[in-house]
Amino acid sequence: MGRWRKRRQLEPSPEERGNRLTAETRSRGRPLLLGLVIFLSVIALGESYALYVNYQNDLFLRQYVSENQTGLLVQSLGLLVLGLGAAYLSFLLSRAKPTSRAGRYSRKILSFSPLIAGLASLVLWFAGISSIVGGSTVDFEIYLVTVLLLISLGMMLRDRLTFRMALRNFARRKTSMAIVILGLMIGTAMISGSLVTQDTFTELFTRGAYYGYGFADEVVYARNVTGAGYLYFTASTSQNLSSQLTSNPQASPFILGFTPEILDTVSLSDTNSGNVQSPATLIGTFSNASQTLGDFHSLGGSVISPNFGDAEAIINDKTARDLNATLGDSIVVYSALRATLKVVGIAASDARGSFSGNDNIFVGMNEAQQLTNHPGSVNYIAITNTGGLRDSIRHSQVVGLAANQTLNSILNPPPAYGCKTDLSQASRAAATICAYSEKQVAVNSATTSAQSLSSFLIVLSTFVIVAGIVLIVNIFVMLAEERKSEMGMSRAVGMRRGQLTKMFLFEGSLYSAGAAFVGVFVGIAIAYVIVYIFATIIARFFPVNLSQVLASFTFTPGSLFAAFTEGLLITYVTILFTSWRVSKLNIIRAIRNIPEPPRGVRTYTVLSITGIILIILGALVFEISYGAKSAVEALVGPSIVIFGVGLILSRFLRNRYAFTITGIALLIQWGVPSLSWNNPLIQNYNFGVEIYFAGGILMVLGGVLLVMYNTDVTLKILHIFYRGKKTLTPIFRTALAYPENKRFRTAATVAMFSLVLFTVAAIASLTAEQNAALDSLVKTDSGGYDIITQAGVPVPNFASMVRGDSAFQNNVASVIDFNNTILLSANDTTSHQSFSYPLLVGADPNALAVTNFYLTNTFQMVNMSTQYKTVNETWKAVMTDPSKVVWSFGAVSNRGPPTSIPTPNVDDVLTLTGFGPQHTPVQTSVTVIGLVNGVFLNGIVGTRALLMNPFGVGTGSLSFIKLTKGADPTNVANLLRKQFLNLKLQTVVIPVVLGAFLQIGQSFEGLLEGFLGLGLVVGIAGLGIISIRSVAERRQEIGILRALGFRKRMILAVFVLENSYIALLGILIGILLGIDVGYAFAVSPNSGLNFVVPWQQILEIVALAYGLSMLATISSARRASRIPPAEALRYSE
Amino acid sequence: MVEAQSVWKIYRTGSLKVEALRGLDLKVRKGEMVAVMGPSGCGKTTLLNCLSGLDDITKGKVAIEGVDLATMSDDQKSGFRARRMGFIFQAYNLLPVLSAQENVELPLLLAGVSEAEAGKEALSALKMVGLEEWRFHKPMELSGGQQQRVTIARALVNKPAIVWGDEPTGNLDSENSAEVVKLLRSLNHDYGLTFVIVTHDSHIAQETDRIVSMRNGQVEKETTTGTKS
Fold first, then answer.
1. CA–CA min distance B152, chain A (Å)
2. Which residues of chain A make contact with B74, given a CB cutoff of 8 A?
3. Distance (Å) from the C-alpha of residue A1125 to the closest C-alpha of chain B?
4. Residue B87 is nearest to which of A737, A740, A1043, comparing CB atoms?
5. Short-list A928, A922, A926, CA closest to A950
6. Residue A356's pLDDT is what?
7. What residues in B contact A727, CB-CB < 8 Å?
8. Bigger pLDDT: A538 or A268?
9. So what's the pLDDT on residue A898?
10. Which of A17, A333, A542, A804 has the most CB atoms lying inside 10 A of its own CB?
11. What are B's interface residues with A at a Cβ cutoff of 8 A?
12. To the nearest whole percent, how much of chain A has pLDDT over 70?
């Protein structure tokens, strides 16, 4: 008895053991804490010393301290109190017993520590860090990812057991792991591909801008109001500018030199080859121009001497190619006068040779002045900054504004029409010679274009990214189902719910990091393919060197990192939410693998409240759309309301009815064009490609809801296929029962396929419709004309010149001449928009029918004043009243729904400002009575009377030509340029250009289809995971099916059929909705398209998507069929 | 009805060799109800699997209704099972995605019976086990006893020559167990169905015609119970 009592006393109680453990844990933590305290103390001491030294040396700081002593003292005391209080509280909480209230609170706070750390990081970012490192989106993303990684690392180190479990789960099944990473990485790959494409196009487009301007960082000129060329001014003006600007203290440090030039549009004719080129750019410079603008280099790389004499010229390689010219050839140059020059050099299209980006011919200044008949004058000054070819644009703003100040002081223009001298001034038309930072503008424009293209790709990729998110949720829900009983056991033996969440989170972090890493590099490959295809397309229509385009392929570490962080963030946030959700389980139900009970009334009440909130939110979003004139908000608001109503209905009706109504409502709202894309409400609203993204997601959601809540209808339809077929009946019955049973899993996979196929089908439909309408589109866009000519000099009567030339007797039906001028501005006094340098054209209203522009053009009048019933009436009003005009915007009809182009509205009053006969600014008011798509005609269409009064313009350089039937427009255009060399004609062969433009558009659409089709990887990965999971889950059931009499091939058929059902359902929903969007494109106002279903392409898409899906699932199905029955029956998960 | 001669079943896992059945001989007559008993790991379930064709034997011969199973292909064995055998497992093994009636119809559909006919027969089988009103319920909506009765209905619906039972009352309480045994016995008496039942439960064994006791992969002894079929 005594010994027993003694033995009892020796053994510690469980509470004593627990307390001992706590003490041991605390004692292990003490050295760490001590080290941390010393570390912080040293830092604090160092900061204090630095502050002290700063105080000693900084007068302003000493002054500030002495002026704010009281305040600083109060702040210091407050900080001391706060610090001491926090420290004491921490001390108390850390000493508290685990079972006491304080102990429980401290554990709770500790469990929230990752969240607190995250919030604190966000506060730190906005409070200070962003101003130090830069507040761009990329910087924020990098910061977020760094914080997330550090917090995750901290969590992993603190909870090593959970991390070890997560790591082992991650590596548990290598095939599944590979498939998951494959599916998750595609979103990152598409972002990476888009950004690398942006890097490449930025390099490509900006190279054109850099070489196009070369070392002319700022250019000084004044436009000729006839629209052709620049006004001439004396060389002394150039010298004045040079001498005054070089003594400007702000600009002079950045200026390398000034180069006066003559730039003129000319025609060229090679007497040796007989070829003609028009237009070309004549560039005349002094021989010392190479000091600032750089040397000419031959194609072999050697320097070409700039000291060429009169009657000599250097041409660039583009000119040489077009003229088929070689060294020593004689070229006749047609300017104001004509001259024959000898080619003494062929320059490579580098920074010097590529100036203007056109066919160039370089001559000495003397020669240029003679040719243009402007002795002693120049019309262009190039200012070169320091910094080389690319870095020089950093100084453009300073130099440009300083140059303008100098020019204003030299030339003394009217104040309202002087050069812009301040950044705060709005851009305005100037009536004098001004400096323009055109190279910087061109580079910025090129960068913006590349960014727009990349943004467009990213917006399109969003469908795939959303599909990727659905895949993540699906995978984690399946993983949770797979591990349900082991999770239940873990909880039963003491694992906390938070640890379960962390386990999934850690595992998910590994997946997301792996997927993001792989995705970045796959994205580089995708981008290369895009660039390659782009280059191939462009090379088909333009004289572009494929290898040169490919040589621009590049990527920046910033883009790769941005793609990595964005992909990681998207995956991580999704996993965070899903982990929290799946860790909610009932322990007993999990261990015994009993399904969760149906949701109670309380859940539906919560959903109803959510529904009410959504309705209010949707209404607010719709309300906002009025003020913002935003189409996305106007259409998404009602969709949110529909969701809200659906949630409320689920409280009172069965889920099936509530969500079927929701699905149908969404499909009607977005599927009926007049309620969505073509809704009259949004026709004047702003919208871009994001509206298709929002609509697509919502349509797919509606379709999936409708189908998944009515699968019995689908099954009844499918029954037709196996009714009466004895062998098929058990297979179909078994196969189709499983998808219906696992609704969420099936719906998620169907949604993934639908999203991707929707985008592909929509683009395929649009492409097919454009293809079918190519001829009619060309006809509409051409306005009924075949050739447009633009002369390099004003031509009083081009029409009679053509009529008088026998070469055109049989092929030209009519020529319509326009008088034209470039105005200084057109200010819309109604909508308060301002348009700089608009073109004003006017034809002869009294011309005979066939040559009367107003009566013969067939350009599409998209809007007209309500006082006129027909297009004809509108044009007649313009003919008869000079105060009435039609605004022509240039847009090739390569897309169905309209996009936003800034124009005045119909019935707006414009104040037109331009130069009068005395070369002083004059004004007049006109009313816009129509909006027309003039395609190549971008400006204001009035009559000759308007041009004459008040602008005094009685001539022009623009003509439209209609050919006789059967005449080849390309041949006629070539002939026109040749016959009228002295006019320096540019010609646009309308059907060829339009056709090429439309074909390029279609080729790009094909490229986009391929790009979006990559998203199929997500759907296929999803299906692959499901099929692997299904085989594992149903192993025992496979055994019983075999026991009942299912043959091996019947088991195979069951799995194949099941996966086919899911894949085809998703594919069909996506295809149908995509075709519906194609229909919306066709019926949108003024699209010029007819509804066409591209059956062949659709079938190809379906076959490819289905084929790939089957490839992904066939091996699992075969494995299932080969499981021996006895082994399967013994199996338990 | 069932004849096993010198049946061996050897499992090889790497270098490990397990002799689950060691030269076992057994005969089951038509209309007989036989219980197979023995300690865990003695090879009872393996015997069942080998006799029913769910698993292949290593050596020996198994014949059912005079047909040597070794001469059948996998497809033939599957067809044979569909037409001539019924199975009742401990874990019920109903397909969770099908309703009670659909589960019972499955063997008939596999045997080539039309859907309409299969529906009628299944209903009749469910009536026989007293579950007609539960025919549209999924297995998870049924109790353990009800699920086992559905399994019995499924096993019997195609009027098999022989019914194999592997611990049919293993997951049931005593009341349900007694009911199931009573049902099986009445089916054996009324329809002359041959039953081979693997069981730990001596009460069930007592209800059968003969008890075959196994140990270490062999038949240790056979005892006639005296209960007449």
1. 13
2. 1047-1048
3. 6
4. A1043
5. A922
6. 73
7. 112
8. A268
9. 41
10. A333
11. 45-46, 49, 52, 54-55, 74-75, 78-79, 81-83, 87, 89, 91, 93, 95-98, 102, 106-107, 109-115, 140, 154
12. 93
Smallest CA-to-CA distance from A371 within A325, A320, A313 is with: A313
What is the model's pLDDT at position A975? 92
> Cβ(A359)–Cβ(A324) under 8 Å?
no
- How near does any CA of chain A get to the CA of B209, in Å? 26
- What pLDDT is attached to residue A854? 93
Picking from A635, A739, A714, the residue whose alpha carbon sits closest to that of residue A1062 is A739
Per-residue confidence (pLDDT) for residue B36, from 0 to 100: 92
* Pairing relationship of beta strands B2-13 and B59-64 according to DSSP bridges: antiparallel
In this complex, do A1126 and B55 lie within 8 Å of one another by their Cβ atoms?
yes
Residue count (chain B) = 229
Interchain CB distance below 8 Å, A741 and B97: yes
Stretch A701-712: mean pLDDT:
91
Interface test with A, best of B78, B84, B108, B138 (most A CBs within 10 A): B78
* Helix boundaries (H) for A599-727: 601-628, 631-652, 655-671, 690-708, 711-722
Whether the per-residue pLDDT at A894 is higher than 50: the answer is no
- Interface A–B counts its CB contacts (< 8 A) at 86
Which residues of chain A lie closer than 8 angstroms to B115, CB-CB? 723, 729
Residue B16 pairs in a beta bridge with: B13
Alpha-carbon separation of residue A796 from A802, A955, A959 (angstroms): 12, 5, 11
- Please name the amino acid found at residue B177: S
Check A726 against B98: CB less than 8 A apart: no
What percent of chain A has pLDDT above 90?
Answer: 26
Q: Which residue of B has its CA nearest to A1122?
A: B74
Query: Which chain B residue's Cα is nearest to A595?
Result: B140
Of A729, A1040, A1048, the CB nearest to B109: A729
pLDDT tens track for A979-1020: 998 888 889 998 888 878 777 877 888 888 888 888 888 888
User: 3-class DSSP state for residue A1071?
Assistant: helix
pLDDT of B225: 80
Contact B82 A1044 (CB under 8 A): yes
Bond preceding residue A279 cis, omega within 30 of 0: yes
Which has the closest alpha carbon to A983: A798, A815, A806?
A798
Tell me, rounded to whole angstroms, the distance of Cα A922 from its chain centroid.
42
Q: Sign of dihedral through CA atoms A667, A669, A672, A676?
A: negative
Alpha-carbon gap, residue A85 to A79, rounded angstroms: 10
pTM: 0.77
So what's the pLDDT on residue A24?
55
Q: Verify whether the Cβ–Cβ distance B106 to A1042 is below 8 Å.
A: no
Hey, is A792 helix, strand or coil?
strand
Helix (H, G, I), strand (E, B) or coil at A364: strand
Lowest mean pLDDT among A80-94, A605-619, A751-765: A80-94
Q: Is residue A874 predicted with pLDDT exceeding 90? A: yes
Q: Which two tokens stand for residue A900?
A: 């936003």
Residue B169 gets which letter from DSSP?
T
Closest chain A residue to B154, measured at CA: A1044
Of B75, B96, B111, Cβ closest to residue A1047: B75
Which residues, in sequence order, are CB contacts of B120 under 8 Å at separation 6+? none
Token pair 């002295």 is found at: A982
pLDDT surpassing 70 at residue A892: no
CB contacts of A738 in chain B (<8 Å) are 97
Q: Is the dihedral of CA A634, A635, A641, A645 positive or negative?
A: positive
B102-114 CB burial, b ≥16 within 10 A, e <16: bbbbbbbbbbebe
Q: Are A325 and A331 in contact (CB under 8 A)?
A: yes
Write down the ipTM of this complex.
0.87
- Alpha-carbon span A346 to A325, nearest angstrom: 9
Given an 8 Å threshold on Cβ–Cβ distance, is B102 in contact with A1036? no
